[in-house]
Automatic annotation (TrEMBL):
Pfam families linked to this entry: NYN (PF01936)
Taxonomy of the source species: Archaea, Methanobacteriati, Methanobacteriota, Stenosarchaea group, Halobacteria
Tree of life domain: Archaea
InterPro entries xrefs: LabA, NYN
Entry-linked CDD domains: PIN_LabA
GO MF annotation list: RNA nuclease activity
Protein name: NYN domain-containing protein
Boundaries of every NYN domain copy: 9-156
Length: 165
């Protein structure tokens, strides 16, 4: 496992939906994406920061998307799909995975900001390709298989002073 050093190139991929639900259910607070980005980059060269968001037709969401851009994130936006039975679905699992695999040849480390265990296979693949995988999530809502699959895990609860608003 490669250690962190200043010359590393890092990509930060933030699963905003997962982070939102975790921070709200655990702390009734929002994520401070500026603090999250600083923690994930950790003094290294940032190659790309992407926040994967869902458009839910909330009055504040456009200002949130703009704030993400101002912080340094590219906001990738997906519309919620409503099905005939009234159920709704929107997730970025495939998009995040494709971006991570595509960026793997351009970075030394991927900071995956999520607690979703569906990304454990992605972690194994990236590590096999020689990319350091760092997971940032709230421990009590992060899947054990995701933590086990990463090179490093950072519990955002330990950084609550800087990653929660």
């Amino acid at each position: 496992m490669a250690e962190i050093h200043p010359a590393q190139r890092v990509a930060v991929l933030a699963d905003a939906q997962n982070l939102y639900h975790s921070s709200h259910s655990l702390y009734s607070q929002n994520v401070d994406y500026s603090g999250l980005l600083d923690a994930a980059v950790d003094g290294r060269e940032l190659v790309r920061a992407i926040a994967y968001v869902i458009r839910a037709d909330s009055p504040q969401e456009e200002s949130f998307f703009e704030a993400l851009r101002d912080i340094g994130f590219e906001a990738k936006i997906k519309e919620i799909k409503t099905f005939g039975d009234g159920s709704k679905k929107a997730d970025w699992d495939v998009g995040i995975s494709l971006d991570a695999v595509t960026l793997a040849e351009k970075v030394d480390a991927v900071a995956l900001c999520t607690g979703d265990g569906d990304f454990s296979r992605l972690c194994h693949h990236l590590r096999h390709e020689g990319v350091r995988v760092e997971v940032f999530g709230f421990r009590s809502s992060t899947a054990d298989e995701l933590i086990d699959a990463a090179d490093d895990f950072t519990d955002l609860a330990d950084l609550s002073e800087t990653v929660l608003l």
